[in-house]
Amino acid sequence: MALTPLPEALERILATAVAVPEQEQISLGTAMNRYCAGVVHADIAVPPADNSAMDGYAVASGDVPGTLVVSQRAPAGTAPTPLVAGTAARIFTGAEIPAGADAVILQEDATVESDRVSLPGARPGQHIRRRGDDIQPGDQLVAQGQRLRPQDIGLLASVGIDTVLVFAPLSVAVLTTGDELREPGSGELGPGQIFNSNRLSLAAQIRSLGMTVVDMGNLPDDPRQIGEALEHAAEAADCVVTAGGVSVGEEDHVRGQIEERGALDIWKLAIKPGKPLAFGQVCGTPIFGLPGNPVSAFVTFALVAKPWLIRRQGGCAVPSPRFPVRAGFALPRPGTRQEFLRVRLSGSGEAMRANLTGSQSSAVLTSLSEADGVAVIAPGKTVAEGDWLEVIPLSAL
Ligand code: AMP
Ligand code: MG
């Protein structure tokens, strides 16, 4: 089977993702990583009033330089009285500017003499944060389909919003397969066994998208048990994600069981790590059959399953940013697939370099855990030290 380039596979897979319409109004404090079901606008100005950006003295700029009586004290959270003409108000950061004052002078620049203060000259507007500088009533705060990050939650809170309309979270069933797999915490490994890392790693990736995990555990390499578990998973969730058993080995039963209970496209993706990947439906529920090697499972989830899940969720999948960084390593032999090399960044500015974190085997998780990002290498390309690379931060993958 010919290798399919990632953009082509993505286009075909994403074409099948139809957004779920269910929505729910939830409290802002629980909205982290959820996708907005509508545009949100501000109905107040932020800041709501002119206020001081510094601790100091509020004055009419025409009255300084000079020595002025301090006629009032305006801490944050109080309503100041109008400034008595020809005086200064002691003011603190965040306090409203008294009517009649148009500048704030830093306390460091003031000399206090009993009830008076000597102040240097000031420019009108100095150290004043204007009403509506940040947000005007009617401004759009978040877009439909936007994932709510901590900074967006802060922004919504700043206009007094305490609930938000979001799409109901997708439920995603996770199922791993392999006779060799033992769960962490289930005792010591026997001969031939390894710990199951994909189950928890995939579940964590799904939860970080704000979606719900239906944990189907690990299945032995037995076609009947895998088939039954796939049926249960298809009933219990909006989408099924499996790891392992989609390759061509005799013990790879996932693909056969999907074909028996639904339909399957097997993709030999032209990416490294990553081939093969199965996509289709089982009992009418969409399914991603990811490869079993842990780095392949992680990368194919991030590159293929994640954009599909986000679109199905009603979210806008934002393309991962790519940054130019010079290679701190050489790759003398060209590959036939698009490669995603695990790299760590060091140095800054001109001296910044991307270095390989270690073995690039798809079974090696340490080099993924140590990586800041992945360098994307086109098929047929070699890399010499100092060449410009495109690096996707892992946090954006
Ligand atoms: P498979 O795709 O089932 O042929 O598995 C490919 C490789 O990945 C084998 O070395 C498996 O032992 C390993 N593997 C499969 N599933 C997991 C898992 N859930 N956790 C850790 N390693 C796995
Ligand atoms: Mg296996």
Fold blueprint:
Elements (H helix, E strand, L loop, with lengths): L5 H9 L8 E5 L12 E2 L9 E2 L3 E4 L6 E9 L12 E5 L11 E4 L4 E3 L2 E4 L8 E2 L10 E3 L7 H9 L4 E5 L3 E7 L3 E2 L11 E2 L2 H10 L4 E8 L3 H14 L2 E5 L10 H8 E6 L3 E2 L4 E6 L2 E6 L3 H20 L9 E5 L10 E9 L6 E4 L9 H4 L3 E5 L10 E6 L4
Parallel strand pairs: 5-6, 13-16, 13-17, 14-15, 17-21, 19-23, 22-24
Antiparallel strand pairs: 1-12, 2-11, 3-10, 4-6, 4-7, 5-9, 8-9, 18-20, 20-21, 22-26, 23-24, 23-25, 25-26
Helix pairs in contact: 1-6, 3-6, 4-5
Bound molecules: adenosine monophosphate and magnesium ion.
What report would you give on this structure?
- With 397 residues, the protein is of the alpha/beta class.
- It has four domains: 6-21 and 169-313, MoaB/Mog-like domain (Molybdenum Cofactor Biosythetic Enzyme, Chain A, 3-Layer(aba) Sandwich), CATH 3.40.980.10; 29-43 and 135-167, Molybdopterin biosynthesis moea protein, domain 2 (Alpha-Beta Complex), CATH 3.90.105.10; 51-129, Molybdopterin biosynthesis moea protein, domain 3 (Molybdopterin biosynthesis moeA protein, domain 3); 323-396, MoeA, C-terminal, domain IV (Beta-clip, Beta Barrel).
- Helix content is 19%, strand content 30%.
- The protein contains seven helices and 26 strands.
- The protein has helices at 6-14, 150-158, 198-207, 223-236, 254-261, 294-313, 366-369, and strands spanning 23-27, 40-41, 51-52, 56-59, 66-74, 87-91, 103-106, 111-113, 116-119, 128-129, 140-142, 163-167, 171-177, 181-182, 194-195, 212-219, 239-243, 262-267, 271-272, 277-282, 285-290, 323-327, 338-346, 353-356, 373-377, 388-393.
- Strands 7-4-6-5-9-8 form a six-stranded mixed β-sheet, with no helix packed on it. Strands 16-13-17-21-20-18 form a six-stranded mixed β-sheet, sandwiched between helices.
- Helix 1 (6-14) runs parallel beside helix 6, helix 3 packs parallel to helix 6 and helix 4 crosses helix 5.
- The radius of gyration is 29 Å and the shape is elongated.
- The protein starts with 5 loop residues before the first helix and ends with a strand.
- The model has no long low-confidence stretch (mean pLDDT 96).
- The protein binds adenosine monophosphate and magnesium ion.
- Magnesium ion (MG) binds next to loops.
- Residues 176, 178, 180-181, 194, 196-199, 243-245, 247, 249, 252, 291-294 line the site of adenosine monophosphate (AMP).
